[in-house]
Specification:
259 residues, alpha/beta
């Protein structure tokens, strides 16, 4: 579990995060959503230590990441997996070598053990047949799956995903969502996904944090969104006319059932 307590972040005189307190739960897909510029990316960067908060705490199973020494933070990051928006694969390395990279850097496994672990991770994302190919030889969706395999290679307790569906078609996005959700459940991972994808929100949003102008505006599960009375949330989620109509139908059905 990751717990955030009274987190503030400012850049010079601009306050970007304002007193955010929340909990990201184990074994669940925790989604951070919000408009561009709302502060959700800054929040994730504070969680993984790419930015230092102005004040507040980030507790990993009770351990305050903010107050850790540099050495302690390095050790802590070994428990984290990260999937970047662009996949961030090494073009000069094969798919298998990309997945082996964190194992080569941080594990004490033998070469044979590292190769076996990387092959297992590729099998988990249905990419064993692509292990000898290079990133430039596979599709964007396959690159994202390689990034997921690399992120879980060290069997992390915490998995961070920055816009994992960015640039993907709807069908491939669903594949990525289902994969992240199943991995989260299988390994009881604390998974945090920063996303704009409303299909992800409604499909795998087990714990959703909505950030508005640097503050936590709302928190709940996807099932609560349809009937939410929070106008800022509903304006963001149901931006299109079609989604507004779908929400109106659901609310009418709920009202009809309650009478």
């Amino acid at each position: 579990m990751i717990e955030v307590k009274h987190l503030f972040k400012s850049f010079e005189d601009k306050e970007v995060l304002k007193d955010i307190s929340t909990v990201f739960e184990d074994g669940k897909t925790n989604l951070i959503i919000g408009q561009s510029g709302s502060g959700k990316t800054v929040l994730m960067k504070n969680l993984v230590g790419l930015l230092e908060p102005t004040s507040g705490q980030v507790l990993y199973d009770g351990r305050d990441f903010v107050s850790m020494s540099k050495r302690e933070k390095v050790m802590m990051r070994r428990e984290m997996g990260m999937i970047f928006q662009s996949a961030a694969l090494f073009d000069s390395l094969s798919v298998l070598e990309n997945v082996m990279f964190p194992l080569d850097m941080f594990s004490s496994m033998t070469l044979r053990e590292r190769k076996k672990r990387a092959e297992y991770c590729l099998d988990r994302v249905n990419l064993v047949d692509a292990e000898k190919k290079y990133p430039g030889e596979i599709s964007g969706g396959m690159q994202k799956r390689v990034a997921i395999a690399r992120a879980i290679a060290l069997n992390p307790k915490y998995l961070f995903c920055d816009e994992p569906n960015s640039g993907l078609d709807p069908k491939t996005s669903l594949v990525i969502d289902e994969l992240l959700h199943s991995i989260t459940q299988e390994f009881n991972t604390t998974t945090i996904i920063n996303t704009h994808d409303m299909n992800s929100v409604m499909g795998i949003g087990e714990n959703i944090i909505f950030i508005y102008e640097g503050q936590k505006e709302w928190q709940g599960v996807s099932a609560d969104i349809m009937g939410s009375s929070n106008k800022r949330l509903t304006d963001f989620i149901f931006a299109s006319d079609l989604l507004k109509e779908m929400r109106a139908v659901v609310i009418n059905q709920q009202n009809h059932q309650s009478t």
